Amino acid sequence: MVQSPLKLISWNVNGLRAVMKKDFLKSIDKLDADIVALQETKIQQDQLTESMHRVRDYEAYFSHATVKKGYSGVATYTRITPEHVRYGIGEPRFDDEGRVIEMDLGDIVFFNVYFPNGQMSDERLQYKLDFYDAFFDHADDLRKQGKGVIVAGDFNTAHNEIDLKNPKSNANRSGFLRIERDWLDHIEQRGYVDTFRAFYPDTVKYSWWTYRFNARQNNAGWRIDCFFVTKDLFDSGRIADAFIDNDIYGSDHCPVGVVLNPS
């Protein structure tokens, strides 16, 4: 059970080895979070180093892609010892890409998820939509057990026009396709809340910028990194705030987070 306010962070680092060469530890110190969920770590089990395992005072958990090297992967660093840790959702076609770490914190289950990118092909777009289905079916099973659910990660979809700089020119690009946006509508209809948008319905902030065209300097970005939580958890006041930390560099994404009140 959560006994004191916790700061939870999600950050797509676009390569753990790369970000560790770019003041990663200083960023971790500045964030000072209780749980840090990293996506797109792009490492294999045999590439893990002592410095990756032992980051400050955190316990570390890693999930790796087995279908391809240097691809996908997630890592969760936590100061809160979980009751149980699970890797994947029990479906090999998704779990082989190392996209999910699930931590049981008692009354809450915390998910670190790197949702698929659908840009490569129609097949990958369908894979992405199938992953959404399978993942939230799994999360809903936990809700039925009375668990609050927190889903942190790179959703690889901007929900509404406010969530990206150039919505019209990206209307036919994966990440802002109507079918993908409809799925985020569906997630909300299933009883999940986009925490940042719930607290700040009119605020324009982004979490990802292409490396091209000086996009970050010009703030021409997308908000695709999110914390979704179950509506009953949000309505109970357990989520105190949500934020996007644009001041942290080292990746083409920046960290996003929430503050979780004690139960």
What's the topology here?
Blueprint: E1 6-12, H1 16-19, H2 24-31, E2 35-39, H3 50-53, E3 59-63, E4 74-78, E5 84-87, H4 92-95, E6 100-104, E7 108-114, H5 122-144, E8 148-154, H6 178-189, E9 192-194, H7 195-199, E10 225-230, H8 231-235, E11 239-244, E12 256-260
Parallel strand pairs: 1-2, 7-8
Antiparallel strand pairs: 1-12, 2-4, 3-4, 5-6, 6-7, 8-10, 9-10, 11-12
Description:
The protein has 263 residues and is α+β, with helices and mostly antiparallel strands. The chain has a single domain, classed as Endonuclease/exonuclease/phosphatase (Deoxyribonuclease I, Chain A, 4-Layer Sandwich), CATH 3.60.10. It is built from eight helices and twelve strands. The protein has helices at 16-19, 24-31, 50-53, 92-95, 122-144, 178-189, 195-199, 231-235, and strands at 6-12, 35-39, 59-63, 74-78, 84-87, 100-104, 108-114, 148-154, 192-194, 225-230, 239-244, 256-260. The protein has a six-stranded mixed beta sheet with strand order 3-4-2-1-12-11. A six-stranded mixed beta sheet has the order 5-6-7-8-10-9. Strand 7 (108-114), helix 5 (122-144) and strand 8 form a beta-alpha-beta unit. 41% of the residues are buried.
